[in-house]
Amino acid sequence: MNPIGNLNKVFESRIRLGVMSVLMVNEEVSFNDLKEMLEVTDGNLASHLGTLEENAYIKVHKGFIGRKTNTTYSITKTGEKAFKGHLAALEAMIKFSQ
Amino acid sequence: MNPIGNLNKVFESRIRLGVMSVLMVNEEVSFNDLKEMLEVTDGNLASHLGTLEENAYIKVHKGFIGRKTNTTYSITKTGEKAFKGHLAALEAMIKFSQ
Fold this sequence. Notes:
Two copies of one chain form a homodimer.
Chain A: H1 14-24, E1 29-30, H2 31-38, H3 42-54, E2 58-65, E3 68-75, H4 77-96
Antiparallel strand pairs in A: 1-3, 2-3
């Protein structure tokens, strides 16, 4: 059995793992809230969000609070399915290692 | 709570995760056996083994079978401790996401 057979390459980054786990349990989360929760820089977060968006794992919503732009993110059905698969593969690897 | 707070950056690669999980449950494993189990190329495996060795998470043993060189790898105490910490952090992230 290949202990890493079903791991998803897109989730090979801690920050992308973090984004997906936050979006699994929150309807919509703003860029700033994600940045605070995951303790990452703007640039770092933006590039990882871009990769997740390209893979259609998350959706971007451009809104306004007063006259200030407010960008929020939510997980897609595809993203949820892919991430659940990755978590199951991680659990299998953890079991393999014990 | 930062869902990725305690994840170890060294284990941010599927292949390094795979090497560590195999070495957690095997005394010593040869380069070729690792390559077969993880379904990776020579170059890819060699570079990830190098990173794990630099972090003192694995040890290299240069031996011979007949006149053929036989290189094997084993996990270090430091590696075992670091990987167990990473697995615990992954489990916490998985719980956070459900």
